[in-house]
């Protein structure tokens, strides 16, 4: 027998009431990250984007570390040990501020820290993870090369043995955090297959020129890694993995965060469009009162709502230990693509103001052009899902 209760108020940015699916702890994590972003980052991020640099990246890293977001889904070594869903909610809030800020956290925690946590020696974990979790040391992840993106097995960076040491030579490209990093996890070809190395960035022969003239992810540090006869001790190699399984496992962690993060950029743009539409008057009434504008707003909100539900479902799967890489590809493929379309539609509602950094929309739109490509292109994720569906590989 059902009873009649008063319906909760309709929330324009949560029309399906997804908030009710979150636990009190999950909401607390989300709210704490949102508060830090609102107070510390939002007032400055448009200026950082325009300047092409975060004003004090090390200071910001320490604040993020103090909040516990670096490697927050990892256990031990100073990491917060939170759930995958809580980590996802944090990524959503970070990217609602800026994709570049979420990239800082993702590369630190899901790539560099995860590689050491999952595949490193106890010595490597003890040396680096507590400092990285606290934001006192910044990490980067060297996989992509100037001519090698979607086919990491063809990488040209080499590591050869010299007595008890390793000598690394090669070049990596489009590496987030590289020019400010204290440690780099670098993947290289060896006579034992692809291996990972923990490389302190003050090692002779290591350099990280910053990449300039970007029109996307401008509030993010991006650079190269140049390895010119970098000599490392035997203990620098990650001992627990050989082959592409190592770097691909890390990429899967980062892709999961993107599934959530992209919805943050979408929410920010949707909120800006809704607010603007209610305030902008044409022909005697707000443009939100016109059918075509309402159709845009509703369609944007539908895709946003479905994207958050997908992210939440995958988060629950990951927490249950059931999440497959193909499902992460499905989430990344859908959510980034739909987030980009939401941002583009929001831009049309703002008209000419949509290209101004006074509003977040063009910044999110530009950033998502990079997010669409990194951690696996649309083409690669399409073929991953296609292979899972059909049983046939179409990569070659």
TrEMBL record:
Domain Acyl-CoA dehydrogenase/oxidase C-terminal, which positions?
A: 242-389
Q: Which family does the record assign?
A: Belongs to the acyl-CoA dehydrogenase family.
Report which superkingdom the organism of origin falls in: Bacteria
Q: Where are the transmembrane segments?
A: none
Q: Which UniProt keywords apply?
A: FAD, Flavoprotein, Oxidoreductase, Plasmid, Transit peptide
Concerning InterPro entries, the annotation shows: Acyl-CoA_Oxase/DH_mid-dom, Acyl-CoA_Oxase/DH_mid-dom_sf, AcylCo_DH-like_C, AcylCo_DH/oxidase_C, AcylCoA_DH/ox_N, AcylCoA_DH/ox_N_sf, AcylCoA_DH/oxidase_NM_dom_sf, Glutaryl-CoA_DH_mitochondrial
Domain named Acyl-CoA oxidase/dehydrogenase middle is located at 140-230
User: Which SUPFAM superfamilies is this protein grouped with?
Assistant: Acyl-CoA dehydrogenase C-terminal domain-like, Acyl-CoA dehydrogenase NM domain-like
- Return the protein name: Acyl-CoA dehydrogenase
Q: Where does the Acyl-CoA dehydrogenase/oxidase N-terminal domain lie?
A: 24-136
Q: Does the keyword Membrane apply?
A: no
GO molecular function ontology, one term from the record: glutaryl-CoA dehydrogenase activity
């Amino acid at each position: 027998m059902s009873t009649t209760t008063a319906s909760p108020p309709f929330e324009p940015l949560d029309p399906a009431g997804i908030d009710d699916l979150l636990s009190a702890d999950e909401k607390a994590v989300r709210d704490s990250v949102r508060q830090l972003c609102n107070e510390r980052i939002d007032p400055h991020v448009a200026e950082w984007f325009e300047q092409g640099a975060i004003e004090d990246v090390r200071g910001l890293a320490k604040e993020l570390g103090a909040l516990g977001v670096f490697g927050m889904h990892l256990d031990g070594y100073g990491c917060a040990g939170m759930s995958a869903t809580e980590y996802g909610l944090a990524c959503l809030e970070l990217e609602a501020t800026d994709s570049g800020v979420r990239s800082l956290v993702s590369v630190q925690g899901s790539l560099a820290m995860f590689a050491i946590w999952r595949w490193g020696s106890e010595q490597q974990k003890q040396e680096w993870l507590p400092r990285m979790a606290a934001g006192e040391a910044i990490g980067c992840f060297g996989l992509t090369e100037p001519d090698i993106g979607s086919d990491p097995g063809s990488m040209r960076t080499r590591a050869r043995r010299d007595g008890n040491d390793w000598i690394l030579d090669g070049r990596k490209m489009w590496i987030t955090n590289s020019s400010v990093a204290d440690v780099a996890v670098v993947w290289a070809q060896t006579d034992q297959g692809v291996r990972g190395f923990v490389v302190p960035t003050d090692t002779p022969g290591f350099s990280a020129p910053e990449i300039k003239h970007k029109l996307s992810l401008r509030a993010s540090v991006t650079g190269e890694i140049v390895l010119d006869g970098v000599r490392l001790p035997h203990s620098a190699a990650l001992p627990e993995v050989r082959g592409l399984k190592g770097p691909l496992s890390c990429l899967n962690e980062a892709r999961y965060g993107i599934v959530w993060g992209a919805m943050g950029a979408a929410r920010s743009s949707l909120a800006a469009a809704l607010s603007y539409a209610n305030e902008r008057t044409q022909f005697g009434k707000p443009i939100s009162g016109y059918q075509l504008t309402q159709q845009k707003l509703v369609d944007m909100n539908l895709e946003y709502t479905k994207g958050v539900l997908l992210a939440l479902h995958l988060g629950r799967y990951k927490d249950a230990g059931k999440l497959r890489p193909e499902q992460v590809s499905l989430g990344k493929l859908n959510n980034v693509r739909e987030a980009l379309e939401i941002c583009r539609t929001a831009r049309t509602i703002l008209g000419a103001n949509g290209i101004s950094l006074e509003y977040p929309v063009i910044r999110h739109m530009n950033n998502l052009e990079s997010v669409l490509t990194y951690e696996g292109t649309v083409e690669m994720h399409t073929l991953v899902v296609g292979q899972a569906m059909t049983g046939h590989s179409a990569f070659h």
